[in-house]
Amino acid sequence: MITQVTRGIKISVNTSFEGTFFKNYKMHFAFGYTITIENQSKDSVQLTSRHWRIYDSLNELEVLDGEGVIGKKPVILPGESHTYSSGCLLASTVGAMKGHYNMVSINNSEKFRVYIPTFKFSAPFTLN
Question: NCBIfam families from the entry (predicted)?
Answer without folding.
Answer: PRK05461.1
